[in-house]
Amino acid sequence: MAQSTNALKKSKGILGALALLAVAVGLWWSLLVAPPDAYQGEVQRIMYLHLPSILTAYLSYFLVFIASGMYLWKREPKDDLLAHAAAELGVLFTALTIIEGSIWGKPTWGVWWTWDARLTFTAVLLLIYAGYLVLRASIDDQQRAASAAAILGIIGFLDIPLIHMSVYWWRTLHQPPSILRPDKKPWENVHPAMLTALTISFVGFLLLYFYLLSLRYRLGEMRQEIKALRLERGI
Amino acid sequence: MGPWGYVALAYGIVWGAIVVYWFSLKRRYRDAENELNRLRSLEAAPGHEQN
Fold this sequence. Notes:
By secondary structure, chain A is mostly helical. Chain A has eight helices and no strands.
């Protein structure tokens, strides 16, 4: 038991160290190596934060979607724990995406915020999953809270295709995708040094995400153990 | 504000927020770990009376 706990702690430490290294290399490439954009100049460097953070948020909500579906099907508490941990991180990365976008918007569009379709659907995504966390906290019965949150977690995920397609379906201020587009490969559309910076930043965000997720998941596990022990001892 | 000012603002807020979240997560993690150890030690001491 103690050996497996130590091994788990060690693997978390290794993941954390790798994340730190990838983030440091990503920062170096993003700020010092990648060339400035031909039209936007230096301010385009915000893209190396903006794109990895929204993709990390999407990944997080995908995990919420899968884990919520599994919970409703199998009623395994571990699926609910994973959905809860992923939702909290998804909210963090979505909020950061909106803040970065706002800071990028001011020098390029002239405004901090506009009710553009993509921005609005992203704000809705943040509200849905912030609501998910509030909903969980407001229901005392753990199983009812998990079921209600799982339903919201699945419905909320439907907003992501809307965000992605919004730049095609509506006339928006937000540019169409540079990387995830059907007509061109990423390396045909983006300078190799920019693509390298973006890839390293994304790897850094992913490693950091899985490190934080492993800590948050274990926190949920410990809280459940505490609840069970308190119940057992009548505390 | 110049272009590098916006870049610095974005990078500062993002990495600042992530570090704050990480510290808060570590604190919650440590609190839970301590509470769990306390409850386990109570469990390991049979006959211990609760107040």
